[in-house]
Amino acid sequence: MNRNNVYILEDRGLLYITGDDAQEFLQNIITNNIENVSENRSCFSALLTPQGKYLYDFIIIKHKSGYFLDCEKKIIENLYKQLNLYKLRSKVDILNLSNEFVVASLTKEKFLELENSKDEMGFTIKFREDPVILDPRSDKLGARLVINLEKLYLSIKKLGLEVSDVAEYYNYSHKLGIAQIDTNNLQDKIFGIECNFEELNGIDFKKGCYVGQENTARIKLKDKLNKRLFAINVLDGEINSEEITSEDKNIGKLLINNKNPFALLKLENKKFNFDNELRCGDAKIRAIKPNWL
Questions:
Q1: I need a labelling partner for 145 at 20 to 30 A (CA). Which of 62, 253, 273, 291 fits?
Q2: Are 66 and 18 in contact (CB under 8 A)?
Q3: pLDDT digits over 188-245, tens only?
Q4: 71 part of a folded domain
Q5: pLDDT for residue 269
Q6: How far apart are CA 287 and CA 290, in angstroms?
Q7: Whose CA is closest to 87, among 16, 21, 14, 15?
Q8: CA distances from 282 to 71, 229, 243, 265 (A)
Q9: What is the DSSP code string of 52-116?
Q10: Strand (E) or helix (H) holding 236
Q11: pLDDT level of residue 293 (50, 70, 90 thresholds)
Q12: Which domain does 60 fall in, by range?
């Protein structure tokens, strides 16, 4: 990607969590450690079911007296309702600011040109009072600017950036093995740890209790991780089935079927042969080996 490209991620939404109990409220339910989030440090995290299954994932950014949750926009209303279920009597306000704020992605090279930036995943600075974050999942995804919509294009101009086709950003994310579109298709079908959240810096195994912590820790400590979510390349034909086979043996299931598909695939002896040509309905496919594996 060109160093001066910027991608406006209109499919992302933003919740804002504030109030006296905001930090404790989030700490009790999310997979990562909110105590490590500061004006200079953001994190990737998730909300799981009590059984440890995937529900939602998001990037958490400290902003003023509260926290932004940067998540896929199509799930934001359901995430809002889920958080309110956990709120109970906590002194917490949850606001949907998706119509006022927007997320834009710029390259790591451009981020490192900014004053006070550091080459550390999750490192956060301010540009014209707005947070800019080097992606905490993978620095290869570049940085994210969270900004009021009214200020967006002036900031783009001041940064010397050129608005580019967002498909380029998501194609690149797919090659990195990081699912960001149609993640609602993963809900309650896959364990959070099978989504590679440990490798993407989304789980803190030392923080203590959170929703779904018991099963997540058990899979990790007993070395029971035998499936993973991988990006899929379609080599030929058309996908018209969810079942994925290798030599007529069922080895997985397609969970996200769009321009950038993802599948849950079985590991053999904790490994996966990425050279294997697989079948999914009438299609020939191959799993993409992510750089973090």
A1: 291
A2: yes
A3: 999 999 999 999 999 999 999 999 999 999 999 999 999 999 999 999 999 999 999 9
A4: yes
A5: 77
A6: 9
A7: 21
A8: 33, 21, 11, 18
A9: SBEEEEEEEEEETTEEEEEEEGGGHHHHHHHHHHHHTT-S-EEEE-TTTEEEEEE-HHHHHHSTT
A10: strand 227-236
A11: confident
A12: 5-165
162-163 and 5-9 beta bridge pairing: parallel
Report whether 234 contacts 285 (CB < 8 A).
yes
Nearest Cα to 61, choosing from 147, 184, 120, 128? 147
Check: pTM over 0.85? Answer yes or no.
yes
Using CA atoms of 220, 224, 227, 230 in order, give the dihedral in degrees to the nearest 10: 20
d(C-alpha 154, C-alpha 150), whole Å: 8
Beta pairing, strands 43-48 & 243-246: unpaired
Question: Residue 30 and residue 56: Cα distance in Å, rounded?
Answer: 10
Task: Identify whether 175 is part of a domain.
Answer: no
pLDDT per residue as tens digits for the range 258-279 = 999 999 999 987 789 999 999 9
Show the tokens assigned to 243: 């079942």
Tell me whether strands 243-246 and 283-287 are parallel, antiparallel or unpaired: unpaired
**Closest to 263 in 3D by CA, of 281, 242, 292:** 242
**CATH code, domain carrying 83:** 3.30.1360.120
CA distance 244 to 239: 10
Q: Are residues 13 and 152 in the same domain?
A: yes
Give the burial class of 220: count Cβ atoms within 10 A of its Cβ; 0-12 exposed, 13-18 middle, 19 or more buried: middle
